[in-house]
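User: Structure please.
Assistant: Input sequence and predicted structure:
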Amino acid sequence: SSGINAEYGEAAPTREENKCLTLFPLSRVKSIMKQCPDISAINQESLFIITRATELFIELMTREAYDVLEERGKSEVEYKDLAGVVEKYECLMFLADILPQKITVREYYRLLKESRDT
């Protein structure tokens, strides 16, 4: 079978090999991907790459959140730790709308007033 590693003389991983190389179930990732109306077909190589990329992304977020909570002397990752990671790294700013820093209602009204005054 031809695959990403074919130019190096290696065959792409088979379906069974892919299952052993990922933590997330490929079938679940595929069903999530199929929810996008722009995706009509998903080959095994694409599914594997998306699954591994997702796992690595979650690993990165978890490690960085752990570093943030260690700085605070805490032992459990909380929402604010993940939001702190997003705020800390510019490359993660695409998540700012999904994981914003929480603010109080009082602070929200203050920010709203400031934005109206300018």
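Helices lie at 15-21, 26-34, 44-72, 79-88, 105-117.
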